[in-house]
Automatic annotation (TrEMBL):
Annotated protein name in UniProt: Hcy-binding domain-containing protein
Record-linked PROSITE patterns: HCY
Residue numbers binding Zn(2+): C248, C315, C316
UniProt xrefs under Gene3D superfamilies: Homocysteine-binding-like domain
Spans through the membrane: none
PANTHER family: HOMOCYSTEINE S-METHYLTRANSFERASE-LIKE ISOFORM 1, ZGC:172121
Biological-process GO terms, alphabetical: methionine biosynthetic process; methylation; S-methylmethionine cycle
Taxonomic lineage from the root: Eukaryota, Viridiplantae, Streptophyta, Embryophyta, Tracheophyta
């Protein structure tokens, strides 16, 4: 049976990344900037149908901004969601695989550009520094599929149960685990129940590392009101989880959330906040918080890293410029040497030890 060497997997990658690795930023906003119409229940996953070139370009933009990890366009891509739009289950599975293929293509193209470039940094701030790059296959919460904003409340109703959530996510997770991604990014997890569902799915023979990223609206608990400490403990107890943290949360809450997570896990902590705005489920748009100035969280990054964060990036409403600014604040990273025998030196893909 195959087992993931969690003791060295992420630590080796972080070591070769100078101690802190940079995650990419928001996807949907950038797709819209390139002209994509995302007013659809599939949201950014709509581009998997007919605008794959735009997804590839956004991945490249983030790599050229200095990102070490790019997240696939599968956050809102569910087999059930594609079927509801009139596609077959096979079509849905194909588009899940495609989300990973696009990211891997972008990584390959970026490495080609690095080999062809005579300099590491261009005058306009683009980064062409060859380095290990990971592809994280995104899995959004059940609330993301509902497209009713419930991933920001965690309220799935009294009828929700563990077996239903496992059944909803199972095939999707299996497809992504076998797609060629380096790890699975379980994102915007709003409650303990769904964290438990993801944890149990990973133990069903899924041979790929994962990270768990929760979201919070008060800086203490996850959005459902469940204890963040208890949710992080669920992630800590799963051997296949190689990092635990927070995404899509206002920057002002991140410091306290890092402190909470550190109390229950020794695994690497990841944080990729949103721009500081809040999502209005009724308006279906991001709105500025009343009385709170727009936050430039780049200024927080050093403090977060000092507190223990080792994977840092951005979520909704952040851009390649955000990631580029963070990159300038991070230590220099080795660009050409292999990570370890557990990692591919050319692609940067995480490998799994077998026993």
């Amino acid at each position: 049976m195959s087992n993931i060497d969690v003791d060295t997997l992420m630590s080796d990658f972080l070591h070769k990344s100078g101690g802190v690795a940079l995650i990419d930023g928001g996807l949907a906003t950038e797709l819209e900037r390139y002209g994509a119409d995302l007013n659809d229940p599939l949201w950014s996953a709509k581009c998997l149908v007919n605008s794959t070139h735009l997804i590839r370009q956004v991945h490249l933009d983030y790599l050229e901004a200095g990102a070490d990890i790019i997240i696939t366009a599968s956050y809102q891509a569910t087999i059930q969601g594609f079927v509801a739009k009139g596609y077959s289950s096979e079509d849905g599975e194909s588009m899940l695989r495609k989300s990973v293929e696009i990211a891997c293509e972008a990584r390959d193209l970026y490495h080609q550009r690095c080999r062809e470039s005579s300099i590491d940094y261009t005058a306009d701030g683009r980064v062409f520094k060859h380095r290990p790059i990971l592809v994280a296959a995104s899995v959004g919460s059940y609330g993301a599929y509902l497209a009713d904003g419930s991933e920001y409340s965690g309220d799935y109703g009294n009828a929700m149960n563990l077996e239903f959530l496992k059944g909803f996510h199972r095939r999707r997770v299996q497809i992504l685990a076998e797609s060629g991604a380096d790890l699975i990014a379980f994102e915007t997890i709003p409650n303990k129940l769904e964290a438990q569902a993801f944890s149990e799915l990973l133990e069903e023979g899924i041979n790929i590392p994962a990270w768990f990223a929760f979201n919070s609206k008060d800086g203490v608990n996850v959005v459902s009101g469940d204890s963040l400490a208890e949710c992080a403990a669920v992630a800590d107890s799963c051997k296949k989880v190689v990092a635990v943290g927070i995404n899509c949360t206002p920057p002002r809450f991140i410091g306290g959330l890092i402190s909470t997570i550190k109390k229950v896990t020794n695994k690497p902590i990841l944080i990729y906040p949103n721009s500081g705005e809040s999502y209005d489920a009724q308006l279906k748009q991001w709105v500025q918080n009343t009385g709170v100035a727009e936050e430039d969280f780049v200024s927080y990054v050093n403090t977060w890293c000092e507190m223990g964060a080792s994977l840092v990036g951005g979520c909704c409403r952040t851009t390649p410029d955000t990631i580029r600014a963070i990159h300038k604040m991070l230590p220099s990273r080795s660009a050409s040497t292999p990570i370890t025998e557990n990692l591919q030196s050319e692609s940067g893909r995480l490998m799994i030890k077998t026993a």
